[in-house]
Give the backbone structure.
Amino acid sequence: MEDQTWDDGVQGAGLMLGLIPLVSVFVALRYQEWWALTFALVLSPWPFLIRSGGQFQASPVPRFRSFKGWKLGSRWVRWGTWHAIRTGDRFVLNHHKESLMNRRGAPRASGVEYWDLVCIRDDKHEVWHPFASRKRGEAATVALIEAT
């Protein structure tokens, strides 16, 4: 089995980090530090380009991680916690659908759907990654089941 990556696309995973260069722009303007302003403006798009996804590594020990990072061309700069896959682990894909409500409590036409990849180990349920796409979630679940 080969290593696999499931990219959820641009999810706005770094929106809160986007506040740092934004605040830095105003501070640099206030103190007229033009080098700091240039630096903040160059850094400002990077938090909004953070992508999320899941990654499976088959060797030397099978493992999975939910990651955040940047895709630069065909290469990734990513981070996340690795989970070792042990013999006897079971994997389930849980479906969630949340509808949005208006002020009176009536459902709106739109909703949010996602699928949680859950590892069941020693009767404990650990959510390893929420997928925005059912197809990607099923592919990850199949790959993890085959690894055990």
